[in-house]
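Pinned message: reference record for GNAT family N-acetyltransferase
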Amino acid sequence: MVYFVRTAGPKDVDQVHKLLIETFHSTYDGIYGAETVEKLLQSWNSPAAITERIGRKGGEYVVADSGRDIGGMGFAAPYAKMDKTVMLHQLYVKPSAQGDGVGRDIFAELETCFPDAEIMRVEVALQNERAISFYSRLGFVEVDRMEEFGGPNSGLPAVVMEKRLPQ
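Predicted structure (C-alpha cells):
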C-alpha cells in the first residue's frame, strides 16, 4: 500500500489512537507486559493527549495516509532543555506496514520541519532493539542512557540518541 505523509488534523485522532493501541501492544507487550502497556496508552496516547499534540504550537504532527487508513504517525517539537534541538517524541508505524519504508518517510518529513534546529534527539526503550536499529540506520548515535523513560518513577530505561540535521 502507498502512504503519503501529511500534517495531522483533528479528524485523524481516532485513527491515530487505534494505530497507537495496536502498535504499542505489538511492540511493548513482550517487554513490559500488557498491563503496563495499557497504563502507558492511557497516560501517553489518550485521544486528549493526541489532540493536544496535534495542536501544539511549534510542534509538527504528521501521519502516513493511504486514503483508506493511517499507517504511521510521528510527532516532534523543539526541545526546551537544549537550544537548536528538536525532540522526536513519537514515530510509530502499524505492524502490517513496518519494513515498507513508512517510518523512514515520516522521519524524512519531520527532519525538514525545523530549519533552525541542528540536532534531533529521541529516547528509545532500552529493550526495543528494532527501534534502536531503525534510528541507527537513519544516522542517530547513542549519546546517553536514562533510567526513567517517559516520566519519573516509570522504571523504564531508555537509550538517548541524536542526529545532526542537515543545514
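Pinned by admin. Summary line: The CA atoms of residues 23 and 94 lie 5 Å apart.
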